[in-house]
Amino acid sequence: RLCELLDNAGRGWRKLAELAGAEKRFKCSVEELEMCSLKVLEPRGSPTQCLLQLLAERDCTLRYLLGCLERMGHEQACRVLSSAVQDMIRITVQPESQVVAEGTQVSLTCCAAGPPGLAYQWFCGRQEVPGATSPELVIDTATLAGQPEWYICRVNCGATFAFSRWAHVRVEKSSSPSSASGYCLTMAGLQILRQPRPCHLAEGDTLVLECRAIGNPPPQYQWFRNRHPVEGAQAPQLQVKLVTTAERGSYSCRVFNLFHEVWSQEVDVEIGEGPRQTSVTPHLLCAQAGVSHSVTPSPSPIFAATDKVALLIGNMHYLHHKQLQAPIVDVHALGALLRQLDFKVVSLLDLCKAEMQMAVDEFLLLLDKGVYAGLLYYAGHGYENFGNSFMVPIDAPSAYTSEHCLCVQRVLREMQQRRTGLNIFLLDMCRKRNLNDDVIPQVGALEVTANIVFGYATCADAEAYELSQGELSNGIFVTFLKRWLLEDEKITVLLDKVAEDMGTLEITRGRQALELRSNLSERRALTDPICPLGQDESSVRNLQWAKAHVLPESRHLRFDCGVTVQLGFAAEFSNIMIIYTRVVAAPKDITKCEARLTDIPEELHVDLKCTNKESPEELGSPLAPVWSLSCPSCCLYSRICGLQKLQQELAFTVCLQYRYQGMDDFVEERQWVNVGRPLIAKLNLQ
């Protein structure tokens, strides 16, 4: 229905793409918008559907989409989306229980976010409160003396509704100051006397925030950073010595006692950038030989990369070990995000040891002085012995040792030799001790380069888990990492935020926690711009990278019977390609025909269940909705995996089967097709 409304309207899909792109991670490139627009040339193609799929891949929420439609002023599209979504109402401010003095008024507040037209109704117990249809409920306590009452608010939009939590209102009668059983009601509750103030500090300074309150019973305190409690910060004054950018964020203080709770204002603490709030004047004056010189403090350095390169490896289908589900989704998700940050991305699935080593070797060829190389992400089985981490290939034997695996620290040493500007390892694997391996590998001494970051999905001697979500599975690590990856933050600060988010997940608490190891001394970020040193070096890298990403050109095959078949290609990963066949022209006397792939090279070990399927979903790939966007409809699809195993050019047969009008038997014609070495096969990893 949204496609019908937005495909041809003046306020259509292009306007939606423009508004959605206000948030960087949802911005579509010119090529992506062109891909959407070309959908009008297909019989059942829809630019809007193509755009929505792109937004979905980037984790765009329905709430954000609805906000974009509201800004467009497209009321009909808003109504369609609102009515189709049943879980859009979210209580943002809950009513709080209170103890109040008799004769005063008390206010309860409930606020909700959701589709337009939210309606409120307050209840006292099971009874509706007459006329209480606004977010705020004001109660006259004169009628409640001595009677505790429970209140709740219902928020609805049509048949969709949500309830707040219960709020308990207790009214106490006034007592004389001499009463031994009561406390002075004029001091009941809490009042904040001093609010924390925002501040701007340099790394190494001391952070001091203060919140003072009075109340009876006496107040207690708990400080929060980015709405997460700060461990051990339970005093009116929060003090942190020798701050780093990791302490940057929004701070607030929760003040509470037995009966009440209030929050301070939320203040921002900036560290390491911009002007500092000190008494130092913008220009320093120094006198020398009677002459005053104006000295302007130098601005913070702006870091840039000569290039940005990433190698992503996901191992799933192990020959002798438990099969994994998440790497295919995680590698694809990270690849899509890193491309938005202008990374050159090579993404590979299911590699044996020799192929992993060759992939790393080719990756190293992309690196040079100043390149932000380092993004090497690995998802699969792994272990850690004697401080060294090992990635397990799919052909590792049941009792594998370091001899059968790749040592991460060896890869790092080779990367250092290329003089890269930033080396990042994101290891989404277990780090349990391997009892079969008692060899201490001699990796060699690493250089002190102050540009190394290790992000481990779990702690030492712990396991990493997958999160099952219907047919898809995500690793816990990437589930949270992709929320922050596009943020303009120092990479260590970004990973700190991921760690905080992971800590909120109940099912893995105490079993999996991100571990960050780093010696990074500069504020380097994945968002830093690219400034090539020279055209020659950049051209060589671009050529090497492009080799692994060239798809065969779509072509038309003409058969003797007059049938024309389109042969097209799409990439799922650098080593997985989709081939589709489509009959685009046939004589009138041919009533039925289809083109199938046969004779695919044996070294690819193609599963026949993943060839010549009438719909992308039948191929069994969870990413089918993504790559099928670039494929026309009414095709037969085949999924070709393991292109790195090709020992020669990829050649196969296209078998055309057709039937003439009035005949029962099919006729068959064949054409031999050679498409060269597609994608990663060009690099000869064998």
UniProtKB/TrEMBL annotation:
It holds the Pfam family Ig_3. It comes from the Eukaryota. GO terms for biological process: proteolysis. One of its GO terms (molecular function) is cysteine-type endopeptidase activity. Residues 306-434 form the Caspase family p20 domain. SUPFAM superfamilies: Caspase-like (SSF52129), DEATH domain (SSF47986), Immunoglobulin (SSF48726). CDD domains: Death_MALT1, Ig. Residues 89-156, 177-270 form the Ig-like domain. This is MALT1 protein.
